[in-house]
Amino acid sequence: MPDAVVLLSGGLDSYTAAAIIAVDGYALNALTIRYGQVHAREVEAARAVARAVGVRRHTELDLDLRGVAASALTGASAVPKDRPIDASIPSTYVPARNTIFLSLALAWAETLGASDLVIGVNALDYSGYPDCRPEYIAAFERMAALATKAGVEGGRLRIHTPLVSLSKADIIRQGLALGLDYGLTHSCYDPRPDGGPCGRCDSCVLRAKGFAEAGVPDPAMR
Hints:
With 222 residues, the protein is α/β, with parallel strands linked by helices. 37% of the residues lie in helices and 11% in strands. The chain has one domain: HUPs (Rossmann fold). It has a five-stranded parallel β-sheet with strand order 3-2-1-4-5, sandwiched between helices. Helix 1 (12-23) packs across helix 6 and helix 6 (168-177) packs across helix 7 (202-214).
């Protein structure tokens, strides 16, 4: 069973992507990064999700980006609420986050002798982040082939993006078909003091839209 390194945030998308790759026959090695985000709820969710999908290894890495990557998610400004979601890049964009995260996953993959990375990016129901697009993923693959020992010696790294062309509703339907418990996940950018979702940030709005279109209740709402 080949190893794959999956970026696991504890959200709905990364959970579903990991489960799909596991069904495809890969052994999962989960990487969760504490990057200075304003709340730790998603890290707790990542631990629960990692157990649920049966990861082989789960590494939690501390890499505080607050000094170099200003974002509402790293405390530089308030998390926007009730805004119209369009193609503009919102203040919750963390500069270069996926590039940094994929680079770390790439390093671990080389260490493990793995050729496969997994990331739950989505180019349809998302908040305008430029590093969620297929052309970005393809460019990173090309870079990795040039920048790694494995690539220079003829190996080929593949970045799996099983959700990239799915709507949020389709992601939820696929996850439910796999028996996933979305009550384990956390998507909110600015949770309430009790840890529950705010229901008003971009992530909450997109998640609610997905569950509504899938015609099922969200088990994480309480």
